[in-house]
Design goal:
5-stranded antiparallel β-sheet, homodimer, alpha+beta, 242 residues
Chain lengths: 242, 242
């Protein structure tokens, strides 16, 4: 099975820095985790918050913390150092090769949408959870799903979710995601590009807020010729306009 | 200008885990860093070493450490906890948007190859530097180059560098890299794919060691239509066979 990840992000219009930060790390026992944080506000101070939050989270995860512990600790850290005055949303999406599960840890009002195999309906993970940093002892909402082919997952920050709201033409990410899958956009990059493009269009190419989208795709594997040795290669690519 | 990064890696033949670890993080003041470590030996213990080394390095870099400090500290950490018994090679390749430079920090016998604008010859950074973990107070070799369009950089672990040596048909990475650029392979992914494919071929598709390759490319920018608003989008993609 091949697991694909795609992240696409852009800034609020006329803002030099994005208050969203996304980091991806390899997990100590196998697999990877994506950490997505949206710092309160926009610009430099929002960036500093989301940077601090993701820095702590990836350091804990690399040191072997389980995801729920990492999310709690990151909250405690932000709450301690910012005195309950600064909030951030946090999502940790992990592909855990030990448990062979997707582990979805949310401290956010933004949902995680999952299209699983043999399920006609999208699973919408939107159980109520607080952003981190404001209330004492905030806990995440955690969902674990089996790693299976034909699973597609998307999550995002509220800049994407609320695209178009300013002009009273909100986008419906659930139906856009379902439509993209139906149309055969089943690689992670195409899904991420499509959803971001729709959001940018809804905001007239001038995003009202920082936007980030994270997609994980497990498309059906191609049949391998028996006896043929093909080394298994991992790839990562990034592009970064400056 | 668009800065592209590509990483490709594979395991030693018949080994379940790669002793190489590559992590990419966003820098606190803008830009990104790639940390590449190759742990001594192969298999599980090599993986644990390179994981520990990269975990420490990215935690320090995210917290604002300058690259030379991060490399020294990672050495001190490995030397302290492993008592000088375990070594690793370490390379930190940073795109620093504050200084507008590429910062190349090496504790490795593997070189960094750079093709710059207006330079017919490849720059080969191979100043002698020790692997970390073995000798007291090991220092990195650091090179700083301007961020300029038409710059292409590659580095790798010794599994790639020594491909084919077992069968007495070593590859010449300098000439392969130069050839690829001459043939117009100027996007980071194509360069990484090409070099890894050549190394796999030299090893008969059964890599004698873990192989990783990191490419940074700054291809010439396309002309933007004046007046057209195009939001600047960053992308990251990964694929991960399991």
């Amino acid at each position: 099975m091949n697991i694909e990840l795609a992240v696409a992000k852009t800034n609020k219009y006329a803002s030099r820095e994005s208050g969203d930060t996304v980091e991806v790390i390899e997990r100590p026992h196998g697999g990877f985790s994506v950490v997505l944080a949206d710092g309160q506000g926009s610009g430099r101070s929002a960036k500093a918050t989301s940077h601090m939050v993701t820095a702590k989270a990836i350091s804990l995860l690399k040191d072997g913390a389980r995801d729920g512990v990492a999310a709690r600790m990151v909250h405690d850290y932000l709450y301690t150092y910012k005195g309950g005055q600064v909030s951030a949303t946090l999502a940790i999406i992990s592909v855990d090769l030990v448990t062979r599960t997707l582990v979805l840890t949310r401290n956010s009002h933004c949902p995680v949408l999952v299209s699983g195999p043999d399920q006609p309906e999208l699973l919408v993970l939107q159980g109520s959870s607080n952003a981190i940093g404001i209330y004492p002892a905030t806990r995440p909402v955690i969902t674990e799903l089996p790693l299976q082919e034909n699973t597609y997952l998307v999550t995002f920050t509220d800049g994407l979710m609320e695209a178009g709201v300013r002009d009273n033409r909100p986008i419906d990410l659930m139906s856009l995601f379902g439509k993209a899958l139906t149309e055969g956009k089943i690689d992670a990059s195409s899904l991420a590009e499509y959803l971001l493009a729709q959001a940018l269009e809804a905001d007239g190419q001038r995003p009202a807020d920082d936007m980030s989208v994270v997609v994980i795709a497990m498309p059906p594997g191609s049949q391998q010729e028996p006896g043929l040795i093909i080394p298994s290669v991992r790839h990562l690519t990034m592009d970064f306009p400056v």
